[in-house]
């Protein structure tokens, strides 16, 4: 991992500040960030995609009032925003995004354009970490191979130059697929991988590709999506899995986890929150939060005492891979 950036162990994820699934007020957004700051969080992640710039605006509004040396900020490239000018476009999961249209583009020039826009929205002269965002097969479909090559030859080259010139401290990739992350690490010299949902309490495919590659190359993993978009926080009946319906095999796993949690008197969200903190490749775990109360609750989950016997029971039940290092409690 880059010697130029030291990422705090816990981070704040800004997707919800972009009105993911539901709109929140400006006041609530700022109160939530204040609660995160007061709770000791000093790493803040955002992206142009989150609310089509709205998250960056809100994150920047708060961070501009804090001493710049006291926090780390990351954003992403892969999309820049343009006025729609009457053109129809899909707002996707964003309940009330800015009235801007995202343009998917991993080229060199588009990367520079995206970052210029991010600097303007954040109101910050420097950004610590920049990730190439959503370079996944499920997002890009049959165009994946083309976009992947453009990202290697365009976005990565642009970020590598900015890193060498000192304009950013670390660069990486933010993906939902661990094999893509592994392939990208093999082909480039990145510092970090932001991995979403592939090293969680109920699934650990990253153990077979991404995490071993990260350890070999000295790349830090920023683990996100630890609740698999909600199912590990709320249970199978009242949430989503990877932003969609919860499939049957996941429901079965959740029921086993819940039964083991009951035996040990452990809250399932607490186990999910702490799960990845034991792996040596994990540099940081980032949690998305949209209410001051959710910040307090997350910190409470992280403080819950969980005995080794609980993790061992999950391994014996086949929920947690036997290769998983025993999780450790977090220290922000």
Automatic annotation (TrEMBL):
Species: Pelagibacterium lentulum
Protein name: Oxidoreductase
Cellular component per GO, a single term: cytosol
Residue ranges occupied by any NADP-dependent oxidoreductase domain in the UniProt entry: 9-316
Molecular function as annotated in GO: oxidoreductase activity
Organism placement in taxonomy: Bacteria, Pseudomonadati, Pseudomonadota, Alphaproteobacteria, Hyphomicrobiales
């Amino acid at each position: 991992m880059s010697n130029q950036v030291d990422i705090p162990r816990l981070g704040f994820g800004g997707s919800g500040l972009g009105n993911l699934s539901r709109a929140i007020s400006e006041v609530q957004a700022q109160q939530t960030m204040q609660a995160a700051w007061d709770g000791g969080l000093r790493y803040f992640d955002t992206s142009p995609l989150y609310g089509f710039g709205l998250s960056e605006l809100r994150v920047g509004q708060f961070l501009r009032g804090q001493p710049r040396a006291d926090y780390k900020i990351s954003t992403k490239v892969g999309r820049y925003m343009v006025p729609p000018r009457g053109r129809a476009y899909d707002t996707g999961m964003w309940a009330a995004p800015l009235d801007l249209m995202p343009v998917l583009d991993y080229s060199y020039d588009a990367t520079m354009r995206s970052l210029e826009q991010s600097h303007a929205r954040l109101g910050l002269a420097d950004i610590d970490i920049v990730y190439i965002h959503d370079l996944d097969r499920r997002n890009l479909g049959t165009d994946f191979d083309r976009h992947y090559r453009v990202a290697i030859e365009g976005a990565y080259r642009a970020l590598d130059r900015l890193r060498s010139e000192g304009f950013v401290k670390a660069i990486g990739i933010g993906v939902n697929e661990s094999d893509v992350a592994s392939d990208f690490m093999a082909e480039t010299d990145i510092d970090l991988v932001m991995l979403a949902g592939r090293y969680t309490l109920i699934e650990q495919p990253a153990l077979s590709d991404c995490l071993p590659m990260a350890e070999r190359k000295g790349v830090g993993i920023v683990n996100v999506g630890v609740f698999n978009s909600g199912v590990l926080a709320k249970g199978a009946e009242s949430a989503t899995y990877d932003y969609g319906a919860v499939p049957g095999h996941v429901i079965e796993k959740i029921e086993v986890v819940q039964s083991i949690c009951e035996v040990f008197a452990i809250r399932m969200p607490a186990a999910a929150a702490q799960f990845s903190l034991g792996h040596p490749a994990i540099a940081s775990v980032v949690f998305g939060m949209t209410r001051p109360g959710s910040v307090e609750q997350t910190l409470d989950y992280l403080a819950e005492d969980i005995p080794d016997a609980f993790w061992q029971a999950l391994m014996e039940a086949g929920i947690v891979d036997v290769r998983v290092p025993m999780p450790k409690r977090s220290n922000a």
